[in-house]
Amino acid sequence: MTTAHGIQQRFPATEPVWIDLSNGTAAPAERVNGRWEYKMDETKLRQAVCDAGHQLWQRRMICGDGGFVSAELNRRRFVVTPPNRRRADLRPEHLLCVDMAGLDMVGSDAALPEIVWRPHRMAYQGAAYLESRSDGSGRQIHATALATPPNIMALHTLAPEAAALKIINHPDLLVVDPADDKALQRAIVAGPLMLLRGQGVFAADRSVDACLNLIEMLEHHASIELATSGFRE
Q1: d(CA 118, CA 123)
Q2: 155, 62 in Cβ contact below 8 A?
Q3: Mean local confidence (pLDDT), 61-89
Q4: Cα torsion for 3, 212, 82, 18, to the nearest 10°?
């Protein structure tokens, strides 16, 4: 069973709650399909996804309409960045609300391209298993992000066939074929970060902010790796 502690409530909380990190408030949760279903504020969630797209673009982690950010609205719907729209000027109304299959729930019957949506869908599908792990290695997944940080992509270009990238002061970054479901599953269980071959760095964690933090920290260590690798050889 997943447990959580409340903010601005008695401690520990008497029931699982979702902590809204944007303002410190919490909303009650319900048990659905083995997980606690968090009742998210869609307006705030859309703004958080837009802010993430802006930050990734401003920090040169993506370009143009590249990258992808998603956040769990509930166990059946996800707020995601739309294809073919620049991330620099995203607004909440531009975002899509899709189901687990990537089908647009509001605007049309079109589905997200499978090669784009697959890693994110598999992360959400594996969330119940990860939360239930009793060996201490479990974690929550309520958001995902895909970016192309320049230093990481440079390291990948220097070792295109590597199964994992060696990065100073950071765990090895697994390199995964985004079309290989079993490899994706293993990587998602192994940790919150991986490199999708031909796509970029993929993060799956408890919030949009947590995903961005992971990607930024990885890029920071990659810049050190590139700057110092010549001295170590």
Answers
A1: 9
A2: no
A3: 94
A4: 20
